[in-house]
Write a structure and sequence with these properties.
7-stranded mixed β-sheet; 7 strands; globular
């Protein structure tokens, strides 16, 4: 596994990659294809704030000059006194299976703990998405449990798995 994976802000020329990973069923991967949808919101948000906002954000996962995919986060308000962040990832097919996703999860967690006051970062995936579960665990996330029938994909309700990483967890 190479250690030269990095995160960087999204540039305008990255929007085509992000959009492709949202609407191209041959590129999204089995667990990220949710049907055809309008992806113009990505471009509008990029024009407004570069996809960096206190409530949500997106960064590109890169290796040298090569784009590998992207990571996202959004704020979850649990109570009036506490918020958590939920992260997601979309990797290009040619970048999958090389450990880049694990590195990207580590990097986004470090970034968010360094630049926010959040104490808890969450990630959810489908029960059948073993590769993503392994990547999260290798990045230090702890499996918390199964959420039954939480996501609709491909004509069926799917069970999910929730993972978390706390600021106080030992670094991996």
């Amino acid at each position: 596994m190479s250690e030269d994976v990095a995160l960087r802000p999204v540039r305008e020329d990255d929007l085509a990659t992000i959009e492709d990973l949202q609407v191209n069923p041959e590129r999204t991967g089995e667990f990220a294809w949710f049907g055809w949808r309008d992806v113009r919101a990505w471009r509008r948000r990029w024009e407004e704030n570069g996809l960096l906002h206190p409530e949500q954000g997106t960064l590109m996962v890169v290796r040298a000059a090569e784009s590998l995919g992207f990571v996202t986060w959004r704020t979850i308000h649990r109570t009036t006194a506490s918020t958590n962040l939920s992260i997601g990832i979309g990797m290009l097919p040619e970048a999958r299976g090389h450990g880049y996703g694990t590195q990207a999860h580590r990097l986004i967690a470090r970034y968010l703990f360094a630049h926010t006051l959040v104490h808890r970062i969450e990630a959810d995936t489908e029960v059948e998405n073993i590769a993503e579960q392994r990547a999260l665990e290798k990045a230090g996330f702890v499996r918390e449990g199964v959420t039954r029938s939480c996501a609709w994909r491909d004509g069926a309700w799917r069970d999910g798995v929730t993972y978390s990483l706390l600021r106080t967890d030992p670094p991996v």
